[in-house]
Specification:
Strand content: under 5%
Distance between the termini: 29 Å
Shape: globular
Largest sheet: none
Order of helices and strands: HHHHHHHHH
Oligomer: single chain
Structural class: mainly alpha
């Protein structure tokens, strides 16, 4: 039995341009050392702003919300497979280049989220109450993992732990907190929205 490929609707032009600009600015911030050079809580405020802005845009901008709602649920879950990038944190910690406490929490949490996402994709769409419950549990875990990672990075910075989290403030890892984390967290919000809609649709039958 083969799994049908995931199809994606066309992203609105304005949104595509905004994402390209966002990615470009994230690269510049990392390449120039701008983000790494900001005093606390500069980087944390920027990352928090990006998190909130991504969720708000995907909820309040009609064209973008319609595009997200047209995405298959499998696509929203599937993008979290890329969170195997958490392996990088564990490698850097083993080399003494990043705070172990951050690497352990963010790294293993991301790996677990990515692995479980593969399991959910293999199980198919959450049409039954049990599958929806399992997807809800995974979704909550994945969102909590991101919150814990950001909170731990902040704690490491506040306590001047050595080594700290400097590698995630410069290229190439700067793209994780400034680009991918907001997208991943937003995906959890949108997945929750879709699961609630599926539940209501099932109850109405």
């Amino acid at each position: 039995m083969t799994t049908a490929p995931i199809s994606f609707p066309r992203l609105p032009g304005a949104a595509l341009a905004a994402v390209a600009a966002w990615l470009g600015l994230a690269i510049i911030a990392g390449a120039t050392g701008f983000l790494a050079g900001l005093p606390f809580p500069g980087p944390q405020l920027i990352i928090l702003t990006l998190l909130v802005a991504t969720v708000v845009a995907g909820t309040a901008v009609p064209a973008l919300r319609a595009w997200i709602d047209a995405l298959p649920l499998r696509a929203l879950i599937g993008i979290n497979v890329f969170r195997f990038i958490g392996i990088t944190f564990l490698v850097l910690a083993a080399r003494g280049q990043i705070a172990p406490v951050f690497a352990q929490r963010a790294g293993w949490g991301d790996i677990a989220t990515a692995a479980l996402a593969i399991v959910l994709l293999a199980a198919g769409d959450p049409r039954t109450p049990i599958r929806r419950a399992l997807t809800h549990a995974w979704n909550a875990f994945g969102a909590l993992d991101l919150v814990v990672a950001v909170a731990t990075a902040t704690w490491v910075t506040l306590h001047a732990v050595t080594p700290g989290v400097q590698p995630v403030l410069v290229l190439p890892l700067v793209l994780i907190p400034t680009f991918f984390v907001p997208i991943f967290l937003a995906s959890h919000v949108f997945i929750f929205r879709r699961l609630v809609a599926l539940g209501r649709s099932a109850d109405a039958r």
